[in-house]
Specification:
A two-stranded parallel sheet has the order 1-2. The protein is mainly α. The chain is flat, with a radius of gyration of 16 Å. The two termini are 21 Å apart. It contains three helices and two strands.
Amino acid sequence: MCRNIKTLFNFDPPATEEEVHAAAVQFVRKLSGFTAPSKANEAAFHTAIDEVSAVAQKLLSSLVTNAEPRNRQVEIERAKIRSVKRFGTK
Protein backbone atom coordinates (compact mmCIF):
# COMPACT_ATOMS: atom_id res chain seq x y z
CA MET A 1 0.00 0.00 0.00
CA CYS A 2 2.77 2.48 0.85
CA ARG A 3 4.27 2.13 -2.61
CA ASN A 4 1.44 4.36 -3.79
CA ILE A 5 2.74 7.28 -1.75
CA LYS A 6 4.96 9.22 -4.12
CA THR A 7 7.60 11.83 -3.39
CA LEU A 8 5.90 15.20 -3.76
CA PHE A 9 8.72 17.64 -3.00
CA ASN A 10 10.81 19.54 -5.55
CA PHE A 11 8.78 18.96 -8.69
CA ASP A 12 7.93 21.43 -11.39
CA PRO A 13 5.00 22.04 -11.32
CA PRO A 14 4.59 21.60 -7.55
CA ALA A 15 2.38 18.88 -6.08
CA THR A 16 -1.32 19.58 -6.29
CA GLU A 17 -3.76 19.44 -3.39
CA GLU A 18 -5.20 16.27 -4.92
CA GLU A 19 -1.79 14.56 -4.89
CA VAL A 20 -1.21 15.53 -1.27
CA HIS A 21 -4.71 14.35 -0.35
CA ALA A 22 -4.15 11.00 -2.11
CA ALA A 23 -0.90 10.50 -0.17
CA ALA A 24 -2.72 11.37 3.07
CA VAL A 25 -5.44 8.81 2.30
CA GLN A 26 -2.82 6.10 1.71
CA PHE A 27 -0.99 7.05 4.91
CA VAL A 28 -4.15 6.96 7.05
CA ARG A 29 -5.21 3.66 5.46
CA LYS A 30 -1.83 2.16 6.28
CA LEU A 31 -1.85 3.41 9.87
CA SER A 32 -5.43 2.37 10.57
CA GLY A 33 -5.39 -0.91 8.68
CA PHE A 34 -8.68 0.04 7.00
CA THR A 35 -9.22 0.54 3.31
CA ALA A 36 -12.66 1.89 4.12
CA PRO A 37 -13.62 2.58 7.73
CA SER A 38 -16.78 1.39 9.43
CA LYS A 39 -19.55 3.91 10.05
CA ALA A 40 -18.38 4.17 13.67
CA ASN A 41 -14.85 5.15 12.56
CA GLU A 42 -15.72 7.17 9.46
CA ALA A 43 -15.57 10.62 11.10
CA ALA A 44 -12.22 9.92 12.76
CA PHE A 45 -10.85 8.49 9.50
CA HIS A 46 -11.83 11.57 7.46
CA THR A 47 -10.62 13.95 10.16
CA ALA A 48 -7.25 12.19 10.15
CA ILE A 49 -7.01 12.48 6.36
CA ASP A 50 -7.75 16.22 6.52
CA GLU A 51 -5.20 16.77 9.28
CA VAL A 52 -2.48 14.73 7.56
CA SER A 53 -3.14 16.63 4.31
CA ALA A 54 -2.76 19.97 6.10
CA VAL A 55 0.48 18.92 7.80
CA ALA A 56 1.86 17.54 4.54
CA GLN A 57 1.04 20.79 2.71
CA LYS A 58 2.74 22.77 5.49
CA LEU A 59 5.81 20.52 5.27
CA LEU A 60 6.07 20.78 1.49
CA SER A 61 5.74 24.57 1.56
CA SER A 62 8.42 24.94 4.25
CA LEU A 63 11.08 22.67 2.71
CA VAL A 64 13.95 24.30 0.81
CA THR A 65 16.51 22.90 -1.60
CA ASN A 66 19.24 24.13 -3.93
CA ALA A 67 18.61 21.25 -6.33
CA GLU A 68 16.88 21.80 -9.64
CA PRO A 69 13.19 20.83 -9.66
CA ARG A 70 12.58 17.34 -11.00
CA ASN A 71 10.58 16.71 -14.14
CA ARG A 72 7.50 14.56 -13.59
CA GLN A 73 7.70 12.91 -17.00
CA VAL A 74 11.34 11.91 -16.50
CA GLU A 75 10.51 10.42 -13.10
CA ILE A 76 7.56 8.49 -14.58
CA GLU A 77 9.83 7.02 -17.26
CA ARG A 78 12.43 6.05 -14.66
CA ALA A 79 9.75 4.33 -12.59
CA LYS A 80 8.58 2.38 -15.65
CA ILE A 81 12.12 1.23 -16.36
CA ARG A 82 12.58 0.12 -12.73
CA SER A 83 9.27 -1.74 -12.89
CA VAL A 84 10.25 -3.59 -16.06
CA LYS A 85 13.60 -4.55 -14.53
CA ARG A 86 11.91 -5.77 -11.37
CA PHE A 87 8.79 -7.47 -12.72
CA GLY A 88 9.49 -8.02 -16.43
CA THR A 89 7.43 -6.80 -19.38
CA LYS A 90 3.69 -7.12 -19.61
